[in-house]
Amino acid sequence: MRAKNFSDREQRRSRRPGGRFTAKLEPKKIAITRPVGKDGDTAELVRSLGWTPFIFHTVELKPLDDRKIIDQIRSSLTQGQIDWIVFMSSTGVKLLFDVLASYPNLPRIPPETRFLAVGPRTRESLLHYGITQTTVPEKYSSTGLDEWFSQLNRKNPRIVLIRSLSADASLANSLRAKGATVTTINIYDSAMPTDLQSVFDFLDGLRLGQFAAVLFTSAISVSNFFTIAETKFEGTGLIHRLNSILVGAVGPVTAERLRNRGVETNVPDEYLIEKAVAKLISQRSQLQAS
To answer: Strand order in 246-249's β-sheet?
Structure first.
């Protein structure tokens, strides 16, 4: 199939100062990336704000084989006292505790261990498994976790990171540079979705001007999106079209990945989907009023 290009005529539509198109602000429809099977709460949130959601899947969270997880658990939990277990997502919480419950002969988490969650949703997941004392950093991101440990008085803590196999090693490397002993349990993979149709539908809707805004919720969602989109489009047409609507990012790493692609974006003060959606809606209202 021949790759599609956006026409020059489309790219020359009337713009506001700053380069954003105005012709396509009418639809109160926002597209949001979510992992496969994780769209319900997000869609309900958008509808509650009077907007129409369009959820498209650029990531599929796939648990690793139990044997691989078990080996990592044994290695991590049998090397002496653990000061902190850090959970990077609610998915990691569920998978770890489900594996521990399914294999009673595995080592248990030492009772003195403290827990750190990347954000409030991850903390809520820990509460579901009986973990009532969980710390959350001020910034809900790997950067926020790193900054939190920088302020910790304890020297050379032992830390276990529960994370995706696809996550980069920047947090672990930074913590080690500060003197921490860090081990990781890669418990799932943030893989390319098996079914790409929702992404193709988003691209078609983007070309037709059906969206006022799009929100990317993770760095891997950006990377996977462009990998998929580049099979359908060539040249700079996609970037022009993205820059013709409001583009939001949850967290600075996600925003940086978009900017590296040439996409203008903004990040809410709190790295939460609900805050990012609210900011995009507010910006759209300001554009209409100006």
So the answer is: 134-135, 114-117, 84-87, 158-164, 181-191, 52-63, 29-35, 213-216, 246-249
